[in-house]
Amino acid sequence: MEDDFEQEDRNGGLQTRQSITELQHSLLQLFNVEIAVRKGLGDEVTVVQSDFKAFGTSIPHTTISAVLTFFGFSQSWTKFIRKALAVPIVFKEDGPEAEVRKRRRGTHMSSPLADFCSELLLFGMDFAVWQCTSGLRLYRLHDDFWLWGSEDACVRGWSDMADLAKVMGLAFNAEKSGSIRVSRTTRISLNSSLPRGDVSWGFLKLSSSGYFVLDNALLDKHITALIAQLASSKSLFAWIRLWNTYGVRYFMSMLGGERPASCFGAQHIALMQQCFARMHQKVFQDEANVANYLRKEIKRRFPSFSAEVQYSFIFLPVAVGGLEVKNPFVTLTQLESTSSKPRRGYGLVYSSRT
């Protein structure tokens, strides 16, 4: 995800289609709205999340051939694709006498052929879940997928997905698989056939009440990585660029985006503030915030600069002579002032205070 942000920076922030990050945020907002509506109607919701383990590198070529044949591809096209996938491979680590082998699994990553083969397989799973559940939709971003609805439908959908994965020679990623049952009343036990684990989204974990809570363990892991990368920056400009992309934009993205929808409510803004307060405390310690740290660092690196470093110099855009350091609390304060107002749309009134 950090690479997505850096690529966007190189392109000047302009893209002709939605980025992966934007798609993830749109899906998260849709998910949040559906949970809120179902809860408001008094329905219980079961949520299942998973993805395939090493999907791109583990697809058997025999599975690809079988799917191509099923969809009516000619023998010549099937043979051509199999030959393109089965490239000879030798690993330098095995020495000069290493045996040359033909690849029997996996596709060439980030290639049109890889996208075509993987989507052809996954489309079959989308349709199978829709068919066996009488219309339940499998929400998917490549091989990351989410399923929510009644418990009975989710159990049937997950069972069908497991059978299909076994037939295709694939396996689910246990670390990214989980399920939960959202209810307005007391916590209810899940069906034993559903995957065990948390339903998470970045730094957020879904609770049985339908609200997201912070995954402090994952948050602390990224804070530690941020501290290490900031410490290795060789210049102030490199430090600021890393802070803006990783410390602000990436952390914002892992919390639902820089502009979370009104459906998240005021409690979500408070959760984001809690996250950044925790991060500031660990990263800056005695300096308390990024502005104080940079003022001190500028004086340390440039002792001949005797003038007082103004806060405006730190936060103003580069175009007007500033350093353009991002301050997440400014964005969160703006969001907080608007999230407390009721929002009207589609004939319903949503208020973060209810």
Describe this structure in words.
A 4-stranded antiparallel β-sheet has the order 4-5-1-6, with helices on both faces. It has 354 residues and is α+β, with helices and mostly antiparallel strands. The protein contains 13 helices and 11 strands. It starts with a helix and ends with a strand. 23% of the residues are buried. Mean pLDDT is 84; it is low at 4-16 and 342-354.
Number of separate strands? 11
Give the biggest sheet. 4 strands, antiparallel
* Low-pLDDT sequence parts: 4-16, 342-354
**Beta-sheet strand percentage?**
5-15%
Strand-helix topology:
Blueprint: H1 2-10, H2 20-40, E1 45-51, H3 55-58, H4 61-70, H5 75-85, E2 88-89, E3 101-102, H6 112-132, E4 139-141, E5 144-149, H7 151-168, E6 178-182, E7 200-201, E8 204-206, E9 212-214, H8 216-231, H9 236-254, H10 266-284, H11 290-301, H12 311-315, H13 328-339, E10 343-345, E11 348-350
Antiparallel strand pairs: 1-5, 1-6, 2-3, 4-5, 7-8, 8-9, 10-11
Helix pairs in contact: 4-5, 6-7, 8-9, 8-10, 10-13
In summary, what is this structure?
With 354 residues, this protein is an alpha+beta fold.
Characteristic key phrases:
three-stranded antiparallel β-sheet, alpha+beta, disordered C terminus, 354 residues
